[in-house]
Amino acid sequence: MNVLVIGGAGYIGSITAKCMVDDGHRISVLDNLSSGHKEAIPSNALFYCGDYGDASLLEDVFSERRFDAIMHFGAISLVGESVVNPALYFENNVAKGITLLNAMVKYKVPNFVFSSSAAVYGEPEQQPITESAKLEPTSPYGETKLAFEKALKWYSQAYDLNYCSLRYFNAAGSVDNLGEDHASESHLIPLVLQVALGKRESISIYGNDYATADGTCIRDYIHVKDLAKVHIVSLEQMINGTIRNEIFNLGTNSGFSVLQIIESARRVTGHAIPVQFAPRRAGDPAVLIAANEKCKQMLKWEPALGDIDKIIGDAWSWHQKFPNGYAPS
Ligand SMILES: NC(=O)c1ccc[n+]([C@@H]2O[C@H](COP(=O)([O-])OP(=O)(O)OC[C@H]3O[C@@H](n4cnc5c(N)ncnc54)[C@H](O)[C@@H]3O)[C@@H](O)[C@H]2O)c1
Q: At what angle are helices 96-106 and 140-159 packed, to 10 degrees?
């Protein structure tokens, strides 16, 4: 397959691009490096450095090459920042995304895989969350993901494009020399590992009075290698006609509390990882677990690397090897 990976210098995009190159696919990456890293792009991928909202760059890219598909990982994704600056989020994740879709339609790229998020559900009452759960985002970030999914639905009907929207829960882990390096880190596992690396003194736990066994929030963690694989599986099935315009939750059908994650990180790193308790944060649901039955049924796929010590162990190996991330040491 000949695939344009938007956001392929970022965490999940670069690892998916690598896995696709390893499987023999031809990959081009378009990324403005706002949160990605040039070093993470596969060396044999063609790299377009620029913005997916830049219509004239897209003209150049699409008139130069024919693609079987676009995988769109590009986004800014800090929930808290999106509440303070929704304009930035709607501009980048929706308005620029529409520029990308319009170029894709013009050049008749037939398939589109979108990185959506559990944030489209907000705070659902039913767990695990199925794809048909109510869509009530509680942040502008979640709203941008939902708005783009809606655009995809209407574009697919009008312009005959086949899309797949993959709603990730929490990605973690690493693959070979590729890992998670965000300048503004908001994800629990890399933050906990920063404590083990000596980069922060302790980890804050926001709320220990939730209605869960140990009082802390529960989330569903999926290994980034599993995420990469399911992108390839979905695209293959789109291209061979098995699926058309589908939405899937990507998770493990199980979850770990914040304290369980810290316990696992203590086992893996041998570090005491001190914690401090802080009040709940607004908009943090007690539990977010993905139902993965639809994935199993339709894609015949389920995560292979569900063991939490393995997920955290792989993240830890990468952070130990690259304590400064992609920055030169
Ligand atoms: N990491 C998670 O656990 C998680 C969970 C749910 C959803 N997602 C979604 O998955 C996708 C990938 O997440 P990630 O953690 O790899 O993020 P990331 O920030 O590491 O990667 C995003 C990439 O997109 C690029 N980008 C952003 N805006 C751009 C623009 N206008 N033009 C060109 N490039 C642009 C960035 O430079 C970066 O390389 C995002 O869409 C995110 O919202 C991630």
A: 20
Give the active site residue among 89, 141, 168, 221. 141
Task: Please give the distance, rounded to the nearest whole angstrom, from the Cα atom of residue 29 to the centre of ligand 1.
Answer: 13
Record the pTM: 0.98
Three-class DSSP category at 190 = helix
Extract the tokens encoding 145.
């993901």
Domain ranges, ordered by start, for the chain: 2-172+221-250, 188-219+253-321
Closest CA to 285 of 125, 153, 161: 125
Task: Compute the distance between CA of residue 166 and CA of residue 168 in angstroms, rounded to an integer.
Answer: 6
| Ligand 1, atom 29, residue with closest C-alpha | 74
CB atoms within 10 A of CB 329: 6
* Residue pLDDT, tens place only, 91-123: 999 999 999 999 999 999 999 999 999 999 999
CATH topology of domain 2-172+221-250: Rossmann fold (3.40.50)
Third-level CATH fold of 188-219+253-321: UDP-galactose 4-epimerase; domain 1 (3.90.25)
CB 35 within 8 A of CB 56: no
- Known catalytic residue: 326? no
Contacts for 106 with CB less than 8 Å, ≥ 6 apart: 62
CA–centroid distance for 273 within its chain: 26
Question: pLDDT (tens digit, 9 = 90+) per residue, 192-216?
Answer: 999 999 999 999 999 999 999 999 9
